[in-house]
Protein: Mevalonate kinase
Amino acid sequence: MPKFSEAIAPSQAFLYGEHAVLYGSPALAMSVDVKTRARVTEVEDRIIEIRSDRFPEGLRWRYDEEQPEENPLLPLAYGLRDLMKRYEFNKGLIVEISSDVPVNSGMASSASVSAAISAAFLSLVGESPEKYLLLDIVYEFERRIHGRASKTGPACAVLGGLVWIEWRDGNMEVSRIDSKDDLSIVISCSGLLSETKKLVSMVSKRYNEIRDVMDRIMHAISALTVEGRKAIEKRDLVRAGELMNINHGLLSAIGVSNYVLDEIVWTMRRLGAYGAKLSGAGGGGCVIGLSENPEVLAKNLSASYPSFAAKVSLEGVRVIR
Amino acid sequence: MPKFSEAIAPSQAFLYGEHAVLYGSPALAMSVDVKTRARVTEVEDRIIEIRSDRFPEGLRWRYDEEQPEENPLLPLAYGLRDLMKRYEFNKGLIVEISSDVPVNSGMASSASVSAAISAAFLSLVGESPEKYLLLDIVYEFERRIHGRASKTGPACAVLGGLVWIEWRDGNMEVSRIDSKDDLSIVISCSGLLSETKKLVSMVSKRYNEIRDVMDRIMHAISALTVEGRKAIEKRDLVRAGELMNINHGLLSAIGVSNYVLDEIVWTMRRLGAYGAKLSGAGGGGCVIGLSENPEVLAKNLSASYPSFAAKVSLEGVRVIR
Structure:
C-alpha cells in the first residue's frame, strides 16, 4: 500500500474585527467544529494531483514538466510545490480533500484545507512541526489564495479554540485565549459567494479615498473588539451580542454587507438572537449569531436559510492517520 | 372678521449627522418643500384652541383656569402660552394647522408646525422678528416636544435652504450654506413611527455603557459629515451617495435602524440610488436617497412604500397673510 497520511482541521467564525484587522485592529475569531479532511498519498510520478469533493474537475499537474492550466485548486498546488521543495521531497502527491466547510462562506475553508494538507504532508515526510511553524506555512497558502489576508483563518485551523489576533511592532500576532467548551454560535449561509480578494481590495480603495472617515470606523471596530473579548471571556452573551450588532453596522458602513446578509441578520435578531453579524469578508458568505439556544434558533432559521449550530473546536488541526 | 395671521414652513431631511450632532458632530440638513400651514386667530376668550388635520381630537384649554388634560398637542399649547406671556398677549387664540409633513417621520414635522405657529402669532401681534430670534423661539418649542433635540429641524423650518449645524464653544450654531435650487432627494416612508425622545435616550444609554466604541462611531460620523458637505457643495452625487451609505451603516451600528428601514435602503440602492440612509431619529420614519432622477426612482419605489421626490425649499418659514 502506498504511503499516505491524513489530517483534519477546523474552520473559522469571525466574532469581531474582520477587515479592520488588516488596518491595525485586533480581531477575535472562533475555531468551528465544521472540518476539512485531507489525505496525502506519496506516488513515484512527479505529479501533484488534487481531488476535491468541492471541485470535482480536480487538478493534475506534472510540476516540473508542464505549465499548469487555470484551475481554482492551483493556489493549493503551488503551495504544495513550495512545501515539497522546502522538505526536499522529490516524488509526487495525490491529495484527496473532503470538507464540511462551505466554500467562499467566510468560514475560512481555504485555511482549513491548507492546514489539513500541510499537516498531512508534514506527517508523510516524518515531520512534527511546532504549531506556530505550521501556522506560518498555512499563512503562506492563504496569501497565495487571497492576496492580502489575515492570519485569522490559519490560526483557527491550526490552533483551535478562541483566537486573538493583534498587531505588535508591525506584525500580526496570534494567541489563544481562555475558552471553555460551551461557546456555540448559529451559522446561516446566504448562498452568495464571499470573494475575499475582491472585497478586501474594495475596502482598501474606499480607505484610500476617504481615509479620515474609514480610519475612524476602523478605530471603532478596534474598540468594540476589545470590549467583545471581555464579554466573551465573561460569557456575557447579551453584551457580546450587542457588540456583534454594532460590528455588523460598521461592516455595513465600510461597504461589505448586502441585502441578503442584512435580511439574515434581522431574521436572527427577530428570532431572539442576542446579536448577529456577517462573518468574514462579507459580500456573501455566512452570518453568525449568538443565542441562548443555538440549536433551536438554527432550526427556526432553516425555513429561510441553510443554518446550523456550531461549537467551538477546542482542538486545531490534527493528524489522524 | 376676527384678526388672524397665517404662515407656512418647510420640513427637513437629514443628509448627514443626525444623533451624532448631539455628541459634538456637525450635521447637514436640507429644508424640504413639503410644508406645514398654520393660521392663528385672535379671540376674546382666554383660551388656546388647536385644530389639526393630523390630530382630529384637537385641544381646547382655558389656560388661566384649567389644568390641561393629556393631549399630543399639549407641548404646542405650552409653547404658545409662553410666547403669549412674552409678548403680553392677554387674549385667546385659535390655531388651525394643516400639514403635508408626515408625523413622526423624521422630517421634523414638529419644528415645521412650531415655526408656522410662531411666525403667524408674531405677525398677529405686529412683530417681524429677525430670523435667528425666531429660530430660538422654535427651538424652545422643540425642546418641549422632544426633550434633548438638535437645532436642525428649527433651522430648516425657519431659514430654508441647506443648513449646517456645528458646535462652537459649547453651543450649537446654525448657518445656511451655498445652495443651488437643483438638489432633490427621494423620500420613502416606512409607516413606522420614529420616536425621537425614545431613540435619543436609547443611544445615550448605549453611549454611557460603551463610551469608547460610541465615541469613535460619532467621530466617524463627524468626519463623513464634513466630507458630505464638500460633496453636496460640488454636487458630486456619487460621492455624496456613498457617504450616505456609510452614514446609514453607522446609524445601524448605534442601533437606530431596523428591518424595514434597511429593506427600504437596499431597495433604493437596487433601483439605482447613489446612496440611501434613514433620515432623522430612526426606529421608523423615512429613508432618503440620492438619485440622478428622483422622480423616476420615487415612482418605482411607490410599488413598495409611499415615496415621493422632494426639492430643497430655498425659502424658510413665511407669513402669507
User: Anything to note?
Assistant: The domain at 185-311 of chain A is CATH 3.30.70.890 (Alpha-Beta Plaits).
